[in-house]
Amino acid sequence: MTAIRARGIEFLAVTLAFCVAAATFFRSVLFGSDRVIPWDFVDSGYPHYFFVDKWIHQHIFPGWNPHIAFGVPLAGEMGSQLFYFPTYLQSLFGNPLSIRVPEVTLVAHIVLAGVGMYYLCRTLSLSPLAASAAGVIFAWGGFPEQSPTSNLGT
Hints:
Blueprint: H1 3-25, H2 27-31, H3 40-57, E1 64-65, E2 72-73, H4 85-93, H5 100-123, H6 128-140, H7 142-146, H8 148-151
Antiparallel strand pairs: 1-2
């Protein structure tokens, strides 16, 4: 088996493993209809998503939020994720009234974080076991779960 083929199989196996782990961890949110990701995701992340999505569907670039004080620019606000490409994909494929699309995007970011850390560690010549441990710790450690709306995207 060539080295490229072995790396491809490793990539598929690692990505599948992180997808299964994320689907298991977030099973009540992804597969149930009565659960949502709580706290900042609902209180801060979803209102920004809804506001930006509503304006994008009206073909208006949402550069200004008139609902806070006398208005604030959205370009400098990280929560709105105005210049983040997945925001526009969410708007294209999602229902603006549904919280499901931002939740699935958040879970996808966690999978991407784990797979990315795995491959960073493998690039730094760590063993597959050590790279897997680093990916799991990074993806499901305290940092991403403490700040999902500002660091992983909604």
